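Hi both,

Apologies for the delay on this - the queue was longer than expected. I finally got the zinc ion-bound model through. Below you'll find the protein sequence and the ligand SMILES exactly as submitted, and right after that the structure tokens for the full complex including the ligand.
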Amino acid sequence: MKATRIIAKFTDLSVSNTRKAVAQAAKRAAKKAKARAASKVAERKARQEALAKLGQPLKRRPRIQDEFTGLPVSRQRKYQLRKLKERRCIICGEPAALSHYCTRHAVAARERQRAGKGRARRYTNSRTYRLEAFAALEDLTRLHLGPANQ
Ligand SMILES: [Zn+2]
């Protein structure tokens, strides 16, 4: 579902302008995520170098000890259960908008299920559509205000 159409319905922006603005916002978000990932890698490298300088062997991250540690399930499932308990998206770890997923992954799950079941009708007032439109509106607002006024 195109959030752009929903936004265009609620604002006086044209569909093409809305599409452009949403695309710009998505580009910015992608750039930010890339920078965040790069800084994490640099951080880990620095930590390893510092440890190596001290002459200590590189250690593994200590094993997480919690109620999920001994469960006979995969590491992936444990990750999901831990995120679920923290009310975070079980895919990306962002704060959850619904019970299991952030807005982005809730929309992805909806579209995946629609495709699988061959649905044609869209219930555009359901939560994922509203969350989607709200998130896109937030991006737009940020674009209009510019980075200095956030
Ligand atoms: Zn997510």
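Main takeaway for now: The first helix runs from residue 3 to 10.

I'll put the files on the shared drive as well.

H.
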